[in-house]
From TrEMBL:
InterPro entries: NUDIX_hydrolase-like_dom_sf (IPR015797), NUDIX_hydrolase_dom (IPR000086), NUDT19 (IPR039121). Transmembrane segments: none annotated. Keywords: Hydrolase, Magnesium, Manganese, Metal-binding. This is NUDIX hydrolase. It comes from Rhodococcus oryzae. One of its GO terms (molecular function) is hydrolase activity. Residues 11-214 form the Nudix hydrolase domain. Its cofactor is Mn(2+); Mg(2+).
Length: 270
């Protein structure tokens, strides 16, 4: 494991991450992807779909159903322009990274099969056109009502790339297939939170604290309906970097003890 080196303070960029959930006999499963090693941010880590807000997300003129932008602004403690950008980025990034599209032909329907949008998905990832242009061209309505606000984590000061990330949860739409057809994913899987945490404890994966924390919280619910019905408090969590006496780096965050007791962490040699 490479030794971590702290960087001067870098301002965080807005980002959105979506925890896709589905029911199974063992309880809710979540969709996870392992990022390609060597990527500038979280390379090799197992994460949920998501990414940075694009400037065009704030200006998106989209057909929208669900809680108004003002409701999202209040829940995430931001202005309406940022709230709109965060929701649009959540839907766009989920589509780009795993092919799940939280949109439909009408306000109360959702696309049943996204295979027909495969080329558009590649073009979106390449930024050949905007997400709002794609939705307008396909006469699709963004289903903000399929998303729920879940958490807010900011990358610690000292990291070379920093994000102010809002986490959402959403049920995987029936008929749609989440995949790994993106340049950023080495592999993808559906797992219960307990399975994902076991893989990490046994050294098969690496989880950053925000991912581990959300897996732990989702694991407390018995069904997807229970997850969607939850109304969690959303404090802003800004972990802090610190060095142990042996020179290794760690981050301090709420509820950290089980994380460090159970598995490896990615900031340096122990």
């Amino acid at each position: 494991m490479a030794t971590f080196e702290a960087h001067p303070e870098v301002p965080p960029k807005d980002a959105s991450t979506v925890i896709l959930v589905r029911d199974s006999e063992s309880g809710p499963e979540v969709f996870l992807l392992r990022r390609v090693g060597g990527m500038a941010f979280a390379g090799g880590m197992t994460v949920f779909p998501g990414g940075g807000v694009d400037p065009q997300d704030a200006d998106a003129d989209v057909a929208w159903t669900g809680p108004p932008v003002s409701w999202w602004a209040e829940r995430f403690g931001v202005d309406e322009s940022r709230a709109k950008a965060l929701v649009c980025a959540a839907v766009r990034e989920t589509f780009e990274e795993c092919g799940v599209l939280l949109a439909g032909p009408t306000a109360d329907t959702v696309v049943a099969d996204t295979a027909g949008y495969a080329q558009a998905r590649k073009q979106l990832e390449a930024r050949e056109f905007s997400f709002s242009e794609f939705l307008a061209r396909e006469n699709l309505v963004l289903r903000a009502d399929l998303l729920r606000p879940w958490a807010n984590w900011i990358t610690p000061v000292g990291e070379g790339r920093r994000y102010d990330t809002r986490f959402f949860v959403a049920a995987a739409p029936a008929g749609q297939i989440a995949d790994g057809e993106t340049s950023e994913a080495a592999e993808v899987t559906w797992q219960t939170p307990a399975q994902a945490i076991t893989d990490w404890i046994e050294g098969r994966t690496m989880l950053l604290p925000p991912t581990w924390s959300q897996l732990s919280s989702i694991g407390e619910y018995a069904t997807v309906a229970d997850v969607l019905a939850a109304e969690p408090e959303i404090p802003v969590i800004l972990p802090t970097l610190y060095q142990e006496e042996d020179g290794s780096w760690r981050v301090r965050f709420p509820g950290q003890d089980p994380y460090y007791a159970a598995g490896a962490h990615p900031w340096g040699e122990r």
